[in-house]
Amino acid sequence: MHRASGARELRSVLDGCAAMAHNAGMVVIGAQVCLIYATAGWYKIQGTRWQEGSALYYALHLDYFAPWPWLSAALAGNALLVLALTYLTVAVQVAFPFTLANRRLKNALLAVMIAEHAGIAVLLGIPFLSLVMIVCDLVFLPTSFLTRLGA
């Protein structure tokens, strides 16, 4: 009887340690994602192509990053859309770390960033970076949503 009680206590302690290690890992991933977005956004703000709103236009014209040239050309042909997407990219990246306290705004920005990375995967042909960033973004989704998704 005493041995079973000790095993339950040990199991309880190990479960608590596992939960603590998991939560610590999630915090580290979250901090890294915030650092990535904040630094990327702030560096973009300093670049003239990003300031004038033409960075996406030039990225769409790089032959190395054009798996579907006709699609890149179609998007690059719409100057207003290119300008809006360029500024939206910078705004979302700079703002994201500051929105973590507001659940609705954070979730809206997560949706925009996941769409942004999906667009990078398709338009620029960089699927692995995009997939990694999407998975890292999923850390910030509400737990209730993730449990419903898993069920």
UniProtKB/TrEMBL annotation:
Domain HTTM-like: 1-145
Regions crossing the membrane: 21-43, 70-96, 108-141
PANTHER family: HTTM DOMAIN-CONTAINING PROTEIN, SPORULATION-DELAYING PROTEIN SDPB
Cell compartment(s), UniProt: Endomembrane system
Membrane topology category: Multi-pass membrane protein
Name of the protein: HTTM-like domain-containing protein
Main location group: membrane
SMART domains assigned to the protein according to its UniProt record, in alphabetical order: HTTM
Keywords, ordered alphabetically: Membrane, Transmembrane, Transmembrane helix
